[in-house]
Structures are given as C-alpha cells and as structure tokens.
Amino acid sequence: MPDNAVPMREDNKQPLKTGEKLLFIVAGIFLLFATIAFGIMQYVMATSDKPIFEQKTHYDLSAEGQKGSLIFRVSTCTECHRAMRGGTNMGNNLDGIGSKRSLAWIESFLRDPETTYGHVTMDHGPKPKQAFFVAEMTEEKRHLMAVFLSELISEQGSASSPVPPKGESPFIDSMVKTWAPDEWKEKYTDIRDKPNNATASERINEQTGVK
Ligand code: HEC
C-alpha cells in the first residue's frame, strides 16, 4: 500500500468537512433562536391582555348587509378574498373596503370590473377569467353583496383606510418631504388638509378621479 493512500474505513463514513460543520452549527443556532422566539411569542400572546394584532376594521351589518354576507360566503368569494376576518388573501382583503369605495363603485365593479377599474383586471371580468361568474350573478345578489361590502369599515389610519391617522405625523411629513416630487405637491392637495366633514371615500375619489 502506498504511503499516501487513504485507508478504507470499515463503516465507510467520512468525517465532516469544516464548511459542513459550520453549516450545521449555523442552522442549529438559527433553529434554536426560532424555537425560543416562538416560545416567547406564545407566552406573550397568552399572558398579554392587549391583542398582538390590533383589529382596525369593524362592521355593523344592516338587514340587507347580512343577506349580502351570506351570498358572499356561499358564492365562493372567500376562496380569493378575506372579509370579516375569514377567507384567504389570494385576492384583495375586503375588510375596510367600505371606507375606501362607495356603494355605487362596488356595484359598478361587480357588474363591470374592467370599465370600473379603467384597466385590465386579473380575475374579475369575462370568461375565462376565474371570477367571471360574479358579473353573471343576478343584479339583486350583486346589490346585496355590494351593500354588505360597503358596511365593512376601517378605522382612519389603518392599512385599509385611505386617510392617514388623525393629528400630526412627523413620519408622513418626512416621507412626503423626501419622496414626493415637487410636481405632485403643486398638482395635489394634501389629503390631510381636506375639511374633516369630507368622508373618506369622497376624499379618495377626488384624489384618484374615480367616482
Ligand atoms: C378567483 C379569485 C376571485 C374570486 C373567486 C373573487 N374575486 Fe374579487 N377580486 C379578485 C382579484 C384578483 C381582484 C382585483 C381585481 C382583478 O384583478 O380582478 C378582486 C377585486 C374585487 C373587488 C374590488 C376591490 C377593490 O377595492 O379594488 C371586489 C369588490 C371584489 N373583488 C368582490 C368579489 C366578490 C363579491 C366575489 C364573489 C361573488 C369575488 N370578488 C370573487 C379575485 C377574486
């Protein structure tokens, strides 16, 4: 046997290389931290009296809205949408939509999605788009669903609200100062300067030109 030959080991195992050891150590540390962090999060969630994810949308359904909510659920809208905290996030989250869109807008969208959006849509619209059936539902059903959706309200300043939080916001001021081009500042008025009696959807309609 030549001097430099590697002797065959009986169990046929090779020792780990330094890089491999390092990889396992890093992965191990990562897993350990993830487990500890998960444990801490569960503990905080179980003992804190404040909810971790603050709910900033609410609903108070009228009789029509309740009927609409039932139609919404049985029509498989929740396969793509989230509403009243149930459903999926494949399409838009519709919680809070009533603060952003008017009843007339929602009805118009359900009937005629692309014209209402003013551009091509992904799932709503004519066949073979997946949500083609929405525009083919009866006008009454679409109306009731639109009423339901228009009653899903968001708090001002929440992610689904078109209006920023009340009061001064140094963060928004600095973002506008840094990022908004001068041309926008001349063209648009600051949404926060609108009179307080304008509703959220009036404000957004004016900004976007969507009625
Ligand atoms: C296959 C998935 C899918 C299904 C099913 C579906 N939607 Fe949608 N929905 C979308 C997507 C994606 C959008 C964004 C517009 C687009 O690209 O089609 C949207 C947009 C909307 C909007 C406009 C939201 C906004 O503010 O811009 C409304 C309202 C809406 N859907 C209601 C419904 C209702 C009511 C149903 C059931 C009758 C339904 N959708 C079923 C995927 C779906």
Mind explaining what this structure looks like?
With 211 residues, the chain is mainly alpha-helical. Among the domains are: 57-154, Cytochrome c-like domain (Cytochrome Bc1 Complex, Chain D, domain 2); 170-208, no CATH class. The chain is built from nine helices and four strands; from the N terminus they run H-E-H-E-E-H-H-H-H-E-H-H-H. It has helices spanning 18-47, 63-74, 103-111, 113-117, 132-136, 139-150, 170-179, 182-187, 200-208; strands at residues 57-59, 82-83, 86-87, 152-154. The chain has a two-stranded antiparallel ribbon. Helix 2 crosses helix 6 (139-150) and helix 3 (103-111) packs across helix 6 (139-150). The longest helix is centred in the first third of the chain and has 30 residues, at 18-47. It starts with 17 loop residues before the first helix and ends with a helix. The mean pLDDT is 86. The chain binds heme C. Heme C (HEC) binds next to helix 3 and helix 6.
